[in-house]
Specification:
Elements: H1 2-11, H2 16-25, E1 27-31, E2 36-38, E3 46-52, E4 54-61, E5 64-72, E6 76-77, H3 80-85, E7 91-95, E8 99-105, H4 106-115, H5 119-141, H6 146-156, H7 158-163, H8 166-173, H9 177-187
Antiparallel strand pairs: 1-8, 2-7, 3-6, 3-8, 4-5, 4-7
Helix pairs in contact: 8-9
Length: about 200
Amino acid sequence: MQKVLDLLNAIHPLSTDLSLHISYILKAKTFLKREFLLRDQNVCRHIWFLESGLVGCFYEKSDKTLCAWFMKEHDVVISVASFFMQKQSYESIVALDNTLTHYITFEELEWIYRHYPEFNYHGRVLVQQYYVRAEERMRAFHNQTPEEKYRYVMEHFPELIMRVSNRYLASFIGVREETLSRVKERWHPTNPTGKR
């Protein structure tokens, strides 16, 4: 719980009353690997802070499961449209490792916004960060070669290389799994002499 308060205080110091209120309503939940935080067609009713672990967001298209994003320790997780509009989600959020979260409900967040106007600033900063990251990912993966996409992951999300399967990582950057395997082999050759 303290890490959630640290995150919020880093954006702007919380008042004592607001800090106490958040501490009171914040709930902890552990999701086991492969357990759903959210299933598609359900409404996202929680906003989660990941204290530890890794989650992925997946959606179905043309009978394929595609990966939209990953979130890890110290990230805030929601299904954006579903949460803010309180409508059915088209995506699922799944724990890819055993994951410890702290969360509040949509109604609790709305109550905070109404009764602690200062928290609207925190909410705006978090939403801005979320959308900036999403735009950066889109720009990095749009009209780029597989090598360039992989380089972006290495530079910005290097931990994903070890923590995420090739299948999910390939879907995330928009290449075929076989292509990703070839790119990874060029970046991390298994043959120490470099001969192939």
